[in-house]
Amino acid sequence: MADYVSTNEGDLVIQLKDHAIGVSTHSATVGLAAGDVTEASNDAAIASHAVNGQSLYTSKSQEWTEYKRLLLYGPLNTPTPITPVAPVVGSLPLGAKGRDCSEVPATGRPDQIASGLHSCHR
User: What does the pLDDT look like over 2-43, one tens digit per residue?
Assistant: First the structure.
């Protein structure tokens, strides 16, 4: 299974979204329970929330760094720059739960990490 799970976070978000759509589309045909559909949808939402939220905060961090630079080291007697606004990340679906991945190696080969992520449990 590790060969099929992307180790690139952006690709993983796309994979999980595609998986959730497939599970929803074919659940009746293959006999999946409603809970399986919800779990696949929540997994996709969690990954998207985490990856996109972190990206928003990284971008905002760069904006704050420039803001601080202008305040502390910019030219004298110039207008004060506008204070950056915190990013809006949104919220997770009601009932969405992360996975217990305490046994997943933090470093190592991508296939080892992906294999560990696949074995995480709720």
Answer: 567 788 899 999 999 999 999 999 999 999 999 999 999 999
Please name the amino acid found at residue 66: E
CA distances from 65 to 24, 55, 58, 69, 70 (A): 43, 16, 11, 6, 9
* Other CB atoms within 10 A of residue 23 CB: 19
Distances (CA, A) of 91 to 1, 17, 60: 30, 17, 18
Query: Can you tell me whether residue 4 is helix, strand or coil?
Result: coil
Secondary structure, 3-state, 9-40: HHHHHHHHHHHHHHHHHHHHHHCCCHHHHHHH
Those residues with Cβ within 8 angstroms of residue 62's Cβ, 6 or more apart along the chain or in another chain: none
Q: Please tell me the pTM assigned to this model.
A: 0.69
Place of tokens 């709720």: 122
Residue 97 and residue 11: Cα distance in Å, rounded?
A: 21
8 A C-beta contact, residue 46 and residue 77: no
